[in-house]
Amino acid sequence: MGVRQSQLFAKIKKEAPKEAETVSHKYLARADFIEQTISGVYRFLPLGYRVLKKIEKIVREEMMNLGAEELYLPVLQNKTLWLETGRWQTIDPPLFRLKDRHQKETALGSTHEEEITDTVRRRIKSYQDLPLYLFQIQDKFRNEMRASGGLLRTREFIMKDLYSFHRDQADLKKFYEKVKKSYFRIFKRCGLKAVCVEASSGTIGGELSHEFMVLSSAGEDKVLICGKCGFGANIEKSGEIKKCPGCGKGLEEKQAIEVGHIFVLGTKYSQVMKANFIDSDGKQKLLVMGCYGIGLPRLMAAAVEVCHDQKGIIWPEEIAPFWVHLLPITPSKSVYVSAEKIYKNLQKEGMEVLYDDRKALSAGQKFVEADLIGIPTRIVISERTLRKGCVEIKKRSEKKVKLIKISQILNVKF
Fold first, then answer.
1. Which residue range forms the structural domain that includes residue 348?
2. pTM for the complete prediction?
Protein backbone atom coordinates (compact mmCIF):
# COMPACT_ATOMS: atom_id res chain seq x y z
CA MET A 1 0.00 0.00 0.00
CA GLY A 2 3.06 2.24 0.11
CA VAL A 3 5.84 3.28 -2.25
CA ARG A 4 9.21 4.78 -1.46
CA GLN A 5 9.82 7.81 -3.64
CA SER A 6 13.45 6.80 -4.18
CA GLN A 7 12.07 3.74 -6.01
CA LEU A 8 9.14 5.43 -7.75
CA PHE A 9 9.34 5.26 -11.53
CA ALA A 10 8.78 8.97 -12.07
CA LYS A 11 11.05 11.77 -13.21
CA ILE A 12 9.65 15.19 -12.33
CA LYS A 13 10.25 17.82 -15.01
CA LYS A 14 10.73 21.56 -14.55
CA GLU A 15 9.15 22.38 -17.90
CA ALA A 16 6.02 21.10 -19.63
CA PRO A 17 6.26 19.69 -23.19
CA LYS A 18 6.19 22.37 -25.89
CA GLU A 19 2.95 20.99 -27.36
CA ALA A 20 1.11 21.17 -24.01
CA GLU A 21 -1.55 23.88 -23.99
CA THR A 22 -4.03 22.85 -21.29
CA VAL A 23 -3.30 22.89 -17.55
CA SER A 24 -4.00 19.17 -17.26
CA HIS A 25 -1.57 18.29 -20.04
CA LYS A 26 1.17 20.49 -18.53
CA TYR A 27 0.84 19.22 -14.96
CA LEU A 28 0.27 15.53 -15.81
CA ALA A 29 3.32 15.55 -18.09
CA ARG A 30 5.56 17.51 -15.69
CA ALA A 31 4.67 15.24 -12.75
CA ASP A 32 5.29 12.18 -14.98
CA PHE A 33 1.77 10.78 -14.82
CA ILE A 34 1.63 10.53 -18.63
CA GLU A 35 3.91 10.76 -21.65
CA GLN A 36 2.94 11.29 -25.28
CA THR A 37 4.37 8.79 -27.73
CA ILE A 38 2.70 9.89 -30.99
CA SER A 39 0.00 12.49 -31.58
CA GLY A 40 -3.06 11.61 -29.51
CA VAL A 41 -1.51 8.49 -27.94
CA TYR A 42 -0.21 8.42 -24.35
CA ARG A 43 1.69 6.16 -22.01
CA PHE A 44 0.22 5.98 -18.52
CA LEU A 45 3.18 5.83 -16.14
CA PRO A 46 2.82 4.36 -12.62
CA LEU A 47 1.42 7.54 -10.99
CA GLY A 48 -1.03 8.09 -13.86
CA TYR A 49 -2.05 4.45 -13.98
CA ARG A 50 -2.88 4.50 -10.27
CA VAL A 51 -5.30 7.39 -10.89
CA LEU A 52 -6.79 5.65 -13.93
CA LYS A 53 -7.41 2.46 -11.91
CA LYS A 54 -9.10 4.49 -9.14
CA ILE A 55 -11.47 6.03 -11.71
CA GLU A 56 -12.09 2.59 -13.22
CA LYS A 57 -12.97 1.22 -9.77
CA ILE A 58 -15.54 3.96 -9.18
CA VAL A 59 -17.10 3.47 -12.62
CA ARG A 60 -17.24 -0.32 -12.21
CA GLU A 61 -18.88 -0.06 -8.78
CA GLU A 62 -21.58 2.29 -10.07
CA MET A 63 -22.28 0.08 -13.11
CA MET A 64 -22.67 -2.96 -10.88
CA ASN A 65 -24.99 -0.96 -8.60
CA LEU A 66 -27.23 -0.59 -11.67
CA GLY A 67 -27.33 -4.38 -12.02
CA ALA A 68 -25.08 -4.43 -15.10
CA GLU A 69 -22.81 -7.37 -15.93
CA GLU A 70 -19.29 -6.84 -17.23
CA LEU A 71 -17.95 -8.36 -20.43
CA TYR A 72 -15.09 -7.64 -22.82
CA LEU A 73 -15.55 -7.28 -26.56
CA PRO A 74 -12.76 -7.43 -29.16
CA VAL A 75 -10.72 -4.47 -30.37
CA LEU A 76 -10.37 -6.05 -33.83
CA GLN A 77 -13.86 -5.85 -35.25
CA ASN A 78 -15.71 -7.90 -37.83
CA LYS A 79 -16.23 -5.94 -41.05
CA THR A 80 -19.45 -7.82 -41.92
CA LEU A 81 -21.17 -6.47 -38.78
CA TRP A 82 -20.32 -2.89 -39.80
CA LEU A 83 -21.63 -3.58 -43.31
CA GLU A 84 -24.94 -4.70 -41.76
CA THR A 85 -25.44 -1.28 -40.20
CA GLY A 86 -23.91 0.64 -43.15
CA ARG A 87 -21.37 2.35 -40.88
CA TRP A 88 -18.23 0.79 -42.39
CA GLN A 89 -17.94 3.77 -44.75
CA THR A 90 -19.97 6.45 -42.97
CA ILE A 91 -18.90 6.61 -39.32
CA ASP A 92 -17.17 9.86 -38.37
CA PRO A 93 -14.31 9.96 -37.53
CA PRO A 94 -13.56 7.12 -39.97
CA LEU A 95 -12.39 3.74 -38.70
CA PHE A 96 -8.76 2.72 -38.43
CA ARG A 97 -8.84 -0.11 -41.00
CA LEU A 98 -6.21 -2.76 -41.60
CA LYS A 99 -5.70 -6.00 -43.55
CA ASP A 100 -4.42 -9.22 -42.05
CA ARG A 101 -1.94 -11.51 -43.80
CA HIS A 102 -4.85 -13.17 -45.65
CA GLN A 103 -5.84 -9.76 -47.03
CA LYS A 104 -9.06 -9.78 -45.01
CA GLU A 105 -10.13 -6.33 -43.89
CA THR A 106 -10.87 -5.52 -40.25
CA ALA A 107 -11.00 -2.39 -38.10
CA LEU A 108 -9.97 -1.17 -34.68
CA GLY A 109 -13.09 -0.58 -32.60
CA SER A 110 -14.05 3.05 -32.12
CA THR A 111 -17.38 2.01 -30.62
CA HIS A 112 -19.16 -1.31 -30.03
CA GLU A 113 -22.83 -1.09 -31.06
CA GLU A 114 -22.43 -3.69 -33.80
CA GLU A 115 -20.46 -6.07 -31.58
CA ILE A 116 -22.84 -5.89 -28.62
CA THR A 117 -25.98 -6.21 -30.78
CA ASP A 118 -24.55 -9.33 -32.43
CA THR A 119 -23.61 -10.78 -29.04
CA VAL A 120 -27.09 -10.22 -27.64
CA ARG A 121 -29.14 -11.31 -30.69
CA ARG A 122 -27.47 -14.73 -30.51
CA ARG A 123 -28.74 -15.23 -26.95
CA ILE A 124 -31.89 -13.21 -26.20
CA LYS A 125 -35.00 -14.97 -27.47
CA SER A 126 -37.78 -14.11 -25.01
CA TYR A 127 -39.18 -11.14 -23.12
CA GLN A 128 -38.33 -13.13 -19.97
CA ASP A 129 -34.63 -12.43 -20.68
CA LEU A 130 -35.22 -8.67 -20.52
CA PRO A 131 -34.20 -6.11 -19.41
CA LEU A 132 -30.50 -6.77 -19.86
CA TYR A 133 -27.59 -4.47 -18.97
CA LEU A 134 -24.02 -5.16 -20.16
CA PHE A 135 -20.91 -3.01 -19.84
CA GLN A 136 -17.21 -3.10 -20.61
CA ILE A 137 -14.14 -1.00 -19.82
CA GLN A 138 -11.91 -1.23 -22.85
CA ASP A 139 -9.64 0.51 -25.35
CA LYS A 140 -11.16 2.57 -28.14
CA PHE A 141 -9.49 3.96 -31.24
CA ARG A 142 -10.74 7.17 -32.86
CA ASN A 143 -9.21 8.32 -36.15
CA GLU A 144 -9.37 11.98 -35.13
CA MET A 145 -8.26 14.64 -37.58
CA ARG A 146 -6.71 16.61 -34.73
CA ALA A 147 -5.75 15.32 -31.30
CA SER A 148 -5.52 18.14 -28.74
CA GLY A 149 -5.56 19.10 -25.07
CA GLY A 150 -3.51 16.18 -23.83
CA LEU A 151 -5.96 13.55 -22.57
CA LEU A 152 -8.98 15.66 -23.52
CA ARG A 153 -8.95 14.55 -27.18
CA THR A 154 -6.94 11.45 -28.04
CA ARG A 155 -6.87 8.75 -30.67
CA GLU A 156 -6.51 5.83 -28.27
CA PHE A 157 -8.30 5.85 -24.92
CA ILE A 158 -10.05 3.69 -22.33
CA MET A 159 -13.82 3.88 -22.27
CA LYS A 160 -16.63 2.46 -20.23
CA ASP A 161 -19.59 1.67 -22.42
CA LEU A 162 -22.83 0.33 -21.01
CA TYR A 163 -25.59 -1.06 -23.25
CA SER A 164 -29.14 -1.76 -22.17
CA PHE A 165 -31.80 -3.90 -23.87
CA HIS A 166 -35.54 -3.54 -23.20
CA ARG A 167 -39.00 -4.71 -24.24
CA ASP A 168 -40.28 -1.20 -24.88
CA GLN A 169 -39.50 2.50 -24.81
CA ALA A 170 -41.10 3.02 -21.40
CA ASP A 171 -38.74 0.56 -19.73
CA LEU A 172 -35.76 2.12 -21.54
CA LYS A 173 -36.73 5.63 -20.40
CA LYS A 174 -36.90 4.46 -16.75
CA PHE A 175 -33.43 2.94 -16.96
CA TYR A 176 -32.08 5.98 -18.83
CA GLU A 177 -33.05 8.17 -15.87
CA LYS A 178 -31.35 5.72 -13.46
CA VAL A 179 -28.15 5.96 -15.50
CA LYS A 180 -28.29 9.77 -15.31
CA LYS A 181 -28.29 9.56 -11.50
CA SER A 182 -25.49 6.99 -11.58
CA TYR A 183 -23.39 9.29 -13.78
CA PHE A 184 -23.83 12.21 -11.39
CA ARG A 185 -22.59 9.94 -8.56
CA ILE A 186 -19.54 8.92 -10.60
CA PHE A 187 -18.58 12.51 -11.36
CA LYS A 188 -19.13 13.62 -7.77
CA ARG A 189 -16.89 10.82 -6.50
CA CYS A 190 -14.23 11.98 -8.98
CA GLY A 191 -14.44 15.51 -7.52
CA LEU A 192 -16.37 16.96 -10.45
CA LYS A 193 -19.59 18.94 -10.68
CA ALA A 194 -21.26 18.03 -13.97
CA VAL A 195 -24.29 19.42 -15.75
CA CYS A 196 -26.51 17.33 -18.03
CA VAL A 197 -27.33 18.93 -21.39
CA GLU A 198 -29.33 17.97 -24.46
CA ALA A 199 -27.00 16.87 -27.24
CA SER A 200 -26.73 15.77 -30.84
CA SER A 201 -26.57 11.97 -31.32
CA GLY A 202 -23.92 12.21 -34.08
CA THR A 203 -22.91 9.03 -35.86
CA ILE A 204 -23.97 6.83 -32.91
CA GLY A 205 -27.55 7.81 -33.74
CA GLY A 206 -30.80 7.29 -31.89
CA GLU A 207 -33.77 9.43 -30.94
CA LEU A 208 -32.36 11.32 -27.95
CA SER A 209 -29.03 11.92 -26.24
CA HIS A 210 -27.57 13.85 -23.34
CA GLU A 211 -24.01 14.90 -22.56
CA PHE A 212 -22.54 15.43 -19.11
CA MET A 213 -20.41 18.55 -19.10
CA VAL A 214 -17.88 19.98 -16.66
CA LEU A 215 -17.67 23.73 -17.09
CA SER A 216 -14.07 24.69 -17.87
CA SER A 217 -12.20 27.14 -20.07
CA ALA A 218 -10.19 24.16 -21.39
CA GLY A 219 -13.32 22.58 -22.88
CA GLU A 220 -13.81 22.34 -26.64
CA ASP A 221 -17.60 22.27 -26.33
CA LYS A 222 -19.90 25.24 -25.90
CA VAL A 223 -23.09 24.83 -23.91
CA LEU A 224 -26.10 27.00 -23.19
CA ILE A 225 -27.05 26.95 -19.51
CA CYS A 226 -30.10 28.34 -17.73
CA GLY A 227 -29.11 29.66 -14.31
CA LYS A 228 -32.71 29.51 -13.04
CA CYS A 229 -34.13 26.05 -13.86
CA GLY A 230 -30.96 24.16 -14.83
CA PHE A 231 -31.83 23.51 -18.50
CA GLY A 232 -28.76 22.95 -20.66
CA ALA A 233 -28.01 22.17 -24.29
CA ASN A 234 -24.95 21.76 -26.44
CA ILE A 235 -24.75 24.58 -29.00
CA GLU A 236 -24.43 21.89 -31.71
CA LYS A 237 -27.92 20.73 -30.72
CA SER A 238 -29.64 24.05 -29.97
CA GLY A 239 -27.53 26.91 -31.33
CA GLU A 240 -30.51 28.92 -32.39
CA ILE A 241 -32.18 28.96 -28.93
CA LYS A 242 -31.96 32.35 -27.17
CA LYS A 243 -34.27 31.73 -24.21
CA CYS A 244 -34.74 28.73 -21.95
CA PRO A 245 -37.61 26.52 -23.26
CA GLY A 246 -38.40 25.62 -19.64
CA CYS A 247 -38.71 28.98 -17.91
CA GLY A 248 -38.10 31.65 -20.57
CA LYS A 249 -34.98 33.05 -18.88
CA GLY A 250 -31.99 34.05 -21.02
CA LEU A 251 -29.34 31.37 -21.57
CA GLU A 252 -25.66 31.78 -20.77
CA GLU A 253 -22.96 30.39 -23.08
CA LYS A 254 -20.14 28.47 -21.34
CA GLN A 255 -17.14 26.41 -22.39
CA ALA A 256 -17.21 22.83 -21.15
CA ILE A 257 -15.50 19.44 -21.21
CA GLU A 258 -17.70 16.50 -22.17
CA VAL A 259 -17.16 13.72 -19.61
CA GLY A 260 -20.06 11.41 -20.51
CA HIS A 261 -22.61 10.82 -23.28
CA ILE A 262 -25.78 8.72 -23.13
CA PHE A 263 -28.13 7.75 -25.96
CA VAL A 264 -31.67 6.46 -26.43
CA LEU A 265 -30.88 4.24 -29.43
CA GLY A 266 -34.36 2.76 -29.69
CA THR A 267 -34.45 0.18 -32.50
CA LYS A 268 -31.77 1.80 -34.70
CA TYR A 269 -29.41 -1.19 -34.47
CA SER A 270 -31.85 -3.98 -33.66
CA GLN A 271 -33.84 -3.20 -36.83
CA VAL A 272 -30.95 -3.37 -39.31
CA MET A 273 -29.30 -6.30 -37.48
CA LYS A 274 -32.58 -8.19 -36.94
CA ALA A 275 -32.23 -8.44 -33.17
CA ASN A 276 -35.67 -9.70 -32.15
CA PHE A 277 -37.36 -11.33 -29.18
CA ILE A 278 -40.70 -13.05 -28.60
CA ASP A 279 -42.94 -10.88 -26.40
CA SER A 280 -45.61 -12.12 -23.96
CA ASP A 281 -48.23 -11.90 -26.72
CA GLY A 282 -46.24 -14.39 -28.80
CA LYS A 283 -45.24 -11.78 -31.38
CA GLN A 284 -41.72 -11.01 -32.56
CA LYS A 285 -40.56 -7.54 -31.59
CA LEU A 286 -37.36 -5.54 -31.95
CA LEU A 287 -35.06 -5.05 -28.96
CA VAL A 288 -35.12 -1.47 -27.69
CA MET A 289 -31.62 -0.24 -26.85
CA GLY A 290 -29.73 2.45 -24.96
CA CYS A 291 -26.01 3.13 -24.72
CA TYR A 292 -24.02 5.09 -22.17
CA GLY A 293 -20.33 6.08 -22.42
CA ILE A 294 -17.62 7.61 -20.23
CA GLY A 295 -14.02 8.21 -21.33
CA LEU A 296 -11.80 7.47 -18.31
CA PRO A 297 -8.64 9.41 -19.32
CA ARG A 298 -10.75 12.46 -20.17
CA LEU A 299 -12.32 12.23 -16.72
CA MET A 300 -8.80 12.24 -15.27
CA ALA A 301 -7.84 15.32 -17.28
CA ALA A 302 -11.09 17.10 -16.36
CA ALA A 303 -10.36 16.53 -12.67
CA VAL A 304 -6.99 18.28 -13.07
CA GLU A 305 -8.53 21.14 -15.08
CA VAL A 306 -10.94 21.81 -12.21
CA CYS A 307 -8.72 20.85 -9.25
CA HIS A 308 -5.37 22.67 -9.40
CA ASP A 309 -3.56 25.84 -8.37
CA GLN A 310 -0.41 27.67 -9.48
CA LYS A 311 1.80 25.03 -7.87
CA GLY A 312 0.27 21.87 -9.30
CA ILE A 313 -2.52 19.32 -9.07
CA ILE A 314 -4.94 19.03 -6.12
CA TRP A 315 -6.31 15.50 -6.53
CA PRO A 316 -9.85 14.75 -5.31
CA GLU A 317 -9.40 12.20 -2.52
CA GLU A 318 -11.08 9.20 -4.14
CA ILE A 319 -8.97 9.28 -7.31
CA ALA A 320 -5.63 10.46 -5.87
CA PRO A 321 -2.65 8.19 -6.64
CA PHE A 322 -1.93 8.02 -2.89
CA TRP A 323 -3.82 9.33 0.15
CA VAL A 324 -0.78 10.51 2.12
CA HIS A 325 2.58 12.02 1.14
CA LEU A 326 5.14 11.52 3.94
CA LEU A 327 8.04 14.00 3.83
CA PRO A 328 11.01 13.91 6.23
CA ILE A 329 12.74 17.21 5.48
CA THR A 330 15.88 17.13 7.68
CA PRO A 331 18.49 14.52 6.78
CA SER A 332 19.16 13.42 10.36
CA LYS A 333 19.08 9.84 11.59
CA SER A 334 16.41 10.49 14.23
CA VAL A 335 14.04 12.08 11.68
CA TYR A 336 14.37 9.17 9.26
CA VAL A 337 14.01 6.55 12.02
CA SER A 338 10.71 8.21 13.05
CA ALA A 339 9.62 8.57 9.41
CA GLU A 340 10.24 4.84 8.80
CA LYS A 341 8.08 3.95 11.83
CA ILE A 342 5.27 6.25 10.66
CA TYR A 343 5.48 4.81 7.12
CA LYS A 344 5.19 1.23 8.37
CA ASN A 345 2.37 2.04 10.81
CA LEU A 346 0.33 3.85 8.14
CA GLN A 347 0.75 0.88 5.81
CA LYS A 348 -0.41 -1.52 8.54
CA GLU A 349 -3.61 0.56 8.73
CA GLY A 350 -4.12 0.11 4.98
CA MET A 351 -3.09 3.66 4.06
CA GLU A 352 -1.79 4.39 0.57
CA VAL A 353 1.43 6.30 1.28
CA LEU A 354 4.08 7.85 -0.93
CA TYR A 355 7.17 8.12 1.32
CA ASP A 356 9.76 10.65 0.16
CA ASP A 357 12.82 8.86 1.55
CA ARG A 358 15.30 10.75 -0.69
CA LYS A 359 17.96 12.24 1.59
CA ALA A 360 19.82 14.21 -1.08
CA LEU A 361 16.91 16.57 -1.86
CA SER A 362 16.38 19.85 -0.02
CA ALA A 363 13.14 20.58 1.80
CA GLY A 364 12.29 23.16 -0.88
CA GLN A 365 12.68 20.66 -3.70
CA LYS A 366 10.54 18.11 -1.87
CA PHE A 367 7.75 20.65 -1.29
CA VAL A 368 7.78 21.78 -4.94
CA GLU A 369 7.45 18.20 -6.18
CA ALA A 370 4.82 17.35 -3.56
CA ASP A 371 2.67 20.32 -4.61
CA LEU A 372 2.99 19.36 -8.29
CA ILE A 373 2.02 15.70 -7.69
CA GLY A 374 -0.94 16.86 -5.58
CA ILE A 375 -1.56 14.07 -3.04
CA PRO A 376 -4.44 15.16 -0.72
CA THR A 377 -2.63 15.02 2.66
CA ARG A 378 1.00 15.85 3.42
CA ILE A 379 2.79 14.76 6.61
CA VAL A 380 6.05 16.61 7.30
CA ILE A 381 8.55 15.50 9.91
CA SER A 382 11.67 17.50 10.84
CA GLU A 383 14.02 17.95 13.79
CA ARG A 384 11.88 20.91 14.89
CA THR A 385 8.64 18.89 14.91
CA LEU A 386 10.39 15.88 16.41
CA ARG A 387 11.52 17.93 19.43
CA LYS A 388 7.82 18.44 20.17
CA GLY A 389 7.00 14.78 19.46
CA CYS A 390 4.90 15.99 16.55
CA VAL A 391 4.48 16.05 12.75
CA GLU A 392 2.94 18.75 10.56
CA ILE A 393 -0.17 17.75 8.67
CA LYS A 394 -1.41 19.84 5.76
CA LYS A 395 -4.20 19.26 3.26
CA ARG A 396 -3.12 20.03 -0.31
CA SER A 397 -6.32 22.02 -0.80
CA GLU A 398 -5.73 24.18 2.30
CA LYS A 399 -3.09 26.65 3.51
CA LYS A 400 -3.31 25.91 7.24
CA VAL A 401 -0.88 23.49 8.87
CA LYS A 402 -1.68 21.43 11.98
CA LEU A 403 0.78 20.04 14.51
CA ILE A 404 -0.23 16.52 15.52
CA LYS A 405 1.39 14.26 18.10
CA ILE A 406 3.12 11.31 16.43
CA SER A 407 1.20 9.00 18.78
CA GLN A 408 -2.08 10.40 17.40
CA ILE A 409 -1.35 10.06 13.65
CA LEU A 410 -3.43 6.91 13.26
CA ASN A 411 -6.43 8.74 14.75
CA VAL A 412 -6.31 11.45 12.06
CA LYS A 413 -8.97 11.36 9.34
CA PHE A 414 -7.08 11.27 6.06
1. 322-411
2. 0.95
